[in-house]
Amino acid sequence: MKRIISWILCLTLIAALAGSVLAAPAENGNPQQGEKIEGTEGESAGEQGESAGEQGESAGEQGESAGGEGGSAGGGDGMDGNQVASAGAPEGSVNISSGEKILDGEVISVWEGSAVQNSGTSVIVARNCEITGDTTAETTPVTGNPGNLLIAGSIRTTIALGQGQSFYINSKITTKNWAALATDGAEPALSDDEKELSLYAYGTEATALEGGYGAYSDLFCNFYSYGSDLQSAEIGIISGTYGTITIGTIAEGEANEELAAHLIDEDTAVHEDKEEGSVITAGRNAIMIHSVNLPPYWEYEGYSEEELPLYSTPVYAHASVLKTDLSLNKGIEYEDQKQAFIDHSAGSVILVKSTNTDIVLDACELIADEAGTGNIIQTVYNNDTMFMNAVPDGEEYPGVNITMKNMEVEGNVVHEDYQRKLQLTLEAAQLTGSVNEYDCAHWNEVSAAEGFTDFCLDASYETHHGAFLVLTEGSVWNVTEESCLSGLTIEEGCSVNGTITVDGEAVEGPGAYTGSIIVTP
């Protein structure tokens, strides 16, 4: 039965892609350098929700096309409604589906739609540009399956689709809401001569003023931020299953072969400090990683129904700042259950929702707004139960693996995704805070107490996965409040400033401990 459904969904995807090809626009003319482009007419059906992708009129939004959080066959942030409706792109926008277009010094301002869009295998290079997306519409929660991202807005100022390659160099992108740098409707690279969709920000500012996110790494997408500043009223960067996030310095950007091929001397000369990292600031979460299930791709090798749950989303950040600032949040009102769920993790720097991930944080600053949870890491059960990767009771998935190295960080680690193991490894790092694991009963109690029982599906869950902490290379854990773990490894030269008990027995010094571990200040 599942195989029949998947074939139906694949046919839905093919029909949607066929429509996008028929609707693909001719390449816009290249404006003169410094020319201001005003788009005041011509609403894009994709951005306005008139396409099947945005407002739930398609099978994707109705759950018949099982894509990502957005419900599209291609991914999580809406359907590729922009691609399907690209013939109706706003006047003054830049929209290409093939070849390469270079924008240099343009000021592009578009109302009610995407200002810059590239699809197919096209390449867009925007250097020294100011790109703005605005709308007269009030900022309200996104509807349909994209609404399960719990973001607000109606426009995506820039968007890459298909296998597009996008390079934003020393530019400024501003959106009123939804998305500054969006990806959607991506196609997997199935041969050596194909490239997955990639979106690069080098020395660039991207801002979502009232809601939404700074950047999205959707399914089969790769987002790179090098010496860039992303700020959002809600979420800084989002990644779904098969997406990747890389955050680093100007120097790392210049060492990236794909990006370097599009950099000119003038681009790099303005950055004297090559070790300048990125800064990701958000009014809710700096990074959010969520699970996405995608039946239309189960027929592809590597993306089967059996392989999908074992995939881990990679995230790498180096010499950069990830922080939350709740003063940026504009207080958009969501439905009661959704609002309660949002509040439960508001202020957590990195939020992981029911997915496997491998996160490496090297020489980074993680700053959690004390007005929020105070958590630097928090895992939770995904509110999007339609497209989540649930772990059957009794099975073991790769889980959440986080490495912090060459850094000092303050804040708590809260592991509430009881279906997965969390392993936190400190390498030459210092953590000042608590680390706690929780079970299914806790999640049910919290959801009832705080009012989000819609996102509580297991009456019970017998398997205990737990949280494990490993200290290596002289690392130090300064315990600030009672912590509960299932595993604690302290290598020689490392220390825990706290009192440790294992199954009720006090222990001291280096060792590898498992059991019911309680650590108090």
Describe the model.
The chain has two domains: 1-332, no CATH class; 349-387 and 395-521, no CATH class. Helices cover 13% and strands 37% of the residues. Strand 37 and strand 38 (505-507) form a beta hairpin. The model is unreliable at 1-75 and 79-87 (pLDDT under 50).
Question: What is the structure about, briefly put?
Answer:
The chain is 13% helix and 37% strand.
Please, how many helices?
A: 8
Distance between the termini: 54 Å
Instruction: Report the uncertain regions.
Output: 1-75, 79-87
Q: What portion of the residues fall into strands of 2 or more residues? A: 35-45%
Q: Give the strand order of the largest sheet, numbering strands 1, 2, ... along the chain.
A: 3-6-9-12-15-18-21-24-27-30-33-35-39-37-38
How many domains? The number is 2
**What's the overall geometry?**
globular
* Spatial extent as radius of gyration: 22 Å
Structural class: mainly beta
The overall pLDDT, averaged over residues, is 85
Q: Could you estimate the helical fraction of the residues in percent? A: 10-25%
The major beta sheet can be summarized as: 15 strands, mixed
Topology:
Blueprint: H1 2-23, E1 36-39, H2 45-48, H3 81-84, E2 94-96, E3 100-104, E4 107-111, E5 116-118, E6 123-127, E7 130-134, E8 156-162, E9 165-169, E10 172-175, E11 179-186, E12 197-202, E13 205-208, E14 213-217, E15 221-226, E16 229-232, E17 235-239, E18 244-248, H4 250-255, H5 257-260, H6 265-269, E19 279-282, E20 285-290, E21 313-318, E22 321-324, H7 336-345, E23 350-353, E24 357-362, E25 365-367, E26 375-380, E27 400-405, E28 408-410, E29 412-415, E30 422-427, E31 430-433, E32 435-437, H8 440-450, E33 467-472, E34 476-479, E35 483-490, E36 495-497, E37 499-502, E38 505-507, E39 511-520
